[in-house]
Amino acid sequence: MESIVRCPTGIEWFDEITGGGLVRGTLTLLAGNPRTGKTSFVAKFLFKGAKDYGEPGIYVSFAETKGKFYVYMAQQGLNFKEIENGGLFKFLGASTVLDRDVLGHFLAEILEVVEKLEAKRLVIDSITPILQLASSLEVRSILHNALSNLANVKNLTIILVADLPFGESKVGYGVEEFIVNSVILLRLQYEPYRSLRRTMEIVKMRGTPILNAVYEYSIVPKVGFIVFVPLKTSEACVRPDVKISTGVKGLDEMLGGGLSKGSSTLIIGSSGSGKTVLALTIAAEAAFKGLNIVYINFEELKSHLEHSLRGLGYSYEELESRSLKVVPHLPHVMPSGALRYHLHQVHVMRGFDKDLAIIDGLAALKRFYDEAAFQQILEEVISFLKYHGITAIYCMAKVDPLAKTAWLINSSDNVILTDMKVEGNRVHRKLMVLKSRMTQADDRVYELCFVDGRLTVKVEEG
């Protein structure tokens, strides 16, 4: 039985989910609305093919000039001038005004360049002008005779780019079932006041079992097209016998000696009730104990967090020199898969091996994503960190009624509730443990205050 040979695209995670890339020597239809990143996808396919695998490639453009293409792709870290000078790339500009005679001559020119360059990869961007020349039956005949045979004879991997009008979400050119081996659909999802979401659907790929057909993706400066895959999770690696001290006087006792290694703790409370102050104190004290910490915040700028740490009596520069990494994120410019991607880069790819991860400002993240997307990403992150044995703390503004966050409470090992009350000219901040999975919860109400300049929890008086 003949085995399937793959053509790696070089696109992060795409090759992993497809079992090695596209099927070599076949045609792929890549369709999408304007601004979905179709050109970014195929450009990386050609560039990585030349740069990483030594495979010459050809880009046929019906719209973009060579100069503009080179400039735009350089912004994504793809230096096409370099691979062109190395004899591994050819840009072919095509007229958008086509008739069948011109098309025949143009296909012959492509064949000539393929043979001269000994190309292994070919992109036509886009085939929409070709599809508009004749009926779908005639188009299938032209594409089959010219391109399918070319792919078979030359073992050439070809991507055909097709434009979909705004509002159209289905591929309906009549060629996908008859000509191409694979169909990939790129979509943009717009929601008022929410982050733009890009999704990639693998509609079909013959000979390839696809477990999850829809994935988020993004186009990152200096990186280009990347696919976000669900974080790999497995059995949780929680160590109840190993405790991490919070460094907050009185809080360790409430939690039965501290936070169990690999556990997840949710700090939930009203605005101004001390969630961030508590989280920053835990991060700072952990850094002084030699632990590696990443602090991700979706609401505060890095300069604001540095100022808050100084207000608590800590030197940010000293904490940073020890082991604290502060990472602010802006949800409105970040796709919902980016947090997963960042955590994977920090904890797996770069090998930082963090002991403690604190994710603050979840309410800001929630405002930019629908409930389903927010829940999916957070559940994956919680499982991911547990799988890697990383102790995690999540901070979120309280939602009334509390039952609306039941899924998050159920996913957390510990739940700490903070609250604020104004009495006269004083602000009283309170704290209680709603849940402690590893130990018996202390159900008393505590006061969160400063004693001798240190954040402390003590039993509420009266």
CATH top level of the largest domain? Alpha Beta
Our Rg estimate from Cα atoms comes to: 27 Å
User: What is the CATH architecture annotation of the largest domain?
Assistant: 3-Layer(aba) Sandwich
Oligomer: single chain
Question: Which of globular, elongated, flat, extended, rod-shaped describes the shape?
Answer: elongated
Report the strand count. 22
Fraction of helical residues: 25-40%
Count of domains: 2
Number of helices: 15
- CATH H-level superfamily of the largest domain: P-loop containing nucleotide triphosphate hydrolases
Average pLDDT: 84
CATH fold node name of the largest domain: Rossmann fold
Strand order of the largest sheet: 5-4-6-7-3-8-9-10-11
Low-confidence stretches: none
Question: What does the main sheet amount to?
Answer: 9 strands, mixed
**Proportion of β residues?**
25-35%
The rounded distance between the terminal residues' Cα atoms is 80 Å
Structural class: alpha/beta
